[in-house]
Amino acid sequence: MAVSGISSAFSGYVQKTLAGAGTASSAQSAALQEATETKAQTLKEAQSGDRAAIKKLSQVQSAQAQQTASQTPASEPGKGATVDHVA
User: Fold this and answer.
1) One digit per residue, pLDDT tens: the chain, 87 residues?
2) With left for phi above 0 and alpha for psi between -120 and 50, is residue 77 left, alpha or beta?
3) The model scores a pTM over 0.70
């Protein structure tokens, strides 16, 4: 009897583990789809409440803002419109 209980417990564990593996595969598939979709698709999904699409758009906007900020030249003290008006 003890062996039968262990066997059924192990069988249940294996089934749960294998079921979880299927979930990971579908999660990977969803991530791949999210990564390869166009910006228009992402925007449409975000407007309908898709949290992954909203997060992706937020990340893209943040990256664009950082890129724009890094391209803006730094101002030098002693140069610029303010100094020209004072002089």
Assistant:
1) 455 667 777 777 777 776 665 556 777 887 788 778 888 898 899 899 989 889 989 998 898 888 887 776 666 666 665 655 655
2) beta
3) no
